[in-house]
Write a structure and sequence with these properties.
By secondary structure, the chain is mainly alpha-helical. The chain has helices at 3-13, 54-62, 75-111, 120-135, and strands at 22-26, 32-35, 45-47. It is built from four helices and three strands. The chain has a three-stranded antiparallel beta sheet. Helix 1 packs antiparallel against helix 3. It is flat. The two termini are 19 Å apart.
Length: 137
């Protein structure tokens, strides 16, 4: 999974960001970027962020304005649902990071074999950066 998708999931999971505006755009390298600060002179899309993520967004969208929680669903129950969803997101993000670490290490090992190919040093440098990002090594 790409790093920008992980960042997007973290942004959506962060309940503190609910009051902030989040912007999405494509950078010069074709990567999707999410930030609370739009870049100057770029076309950006505003992203709606709900505390608790997609589950709360669906409930908010389907509930009539000013409606009380559904039968059997207290405000505390919604908090428990949000907590459980956030825990699942955090576990998923840890799993993705571990998989990306393995992939980065395999890429570095494949490039770290003797031989001279055009652009090899640049690829090695990037592979080492990826290992540092995903594995912290």
């Amino acid at each position: 999974m790409r790093k920008d998708i992980v960042i997007a999931a973290l942004l959506l999971a962060a309940s503190g960001m609910a009051q902030a505006e989040v912007y999405k755009w494509v950078d010069a390298n074709g990567r999707v970027v999410f930030s609370d600060q739009p870049p100057p002179g770029k076309k950006v899309d505003k992203v709606k962020v709900y505390p608790g993520g997609a589950q709360v967004a669906r409930q908010a969208a389907s509930a009539p304005a000013g409606a009380a929680p559904a039968a059997g669903q207290s405000a505390g129950g919604l908090d428990a649902d949000v907590k459980a969803l956030n825990e699942r997101i955090e576990k998923h993000n840890r799993d993705v990071k571990a998989q990306n670490c393995k992939t980065a290490q395999a890429n570095l090992a494949a490039l770290d074999r003797p031989g001279s190919k055009p652009g090899r040093e640049e690829m090695l440098k990037r592979a080492r950066e990826e290992v540092q990002i995903w594995c912290g090594k």
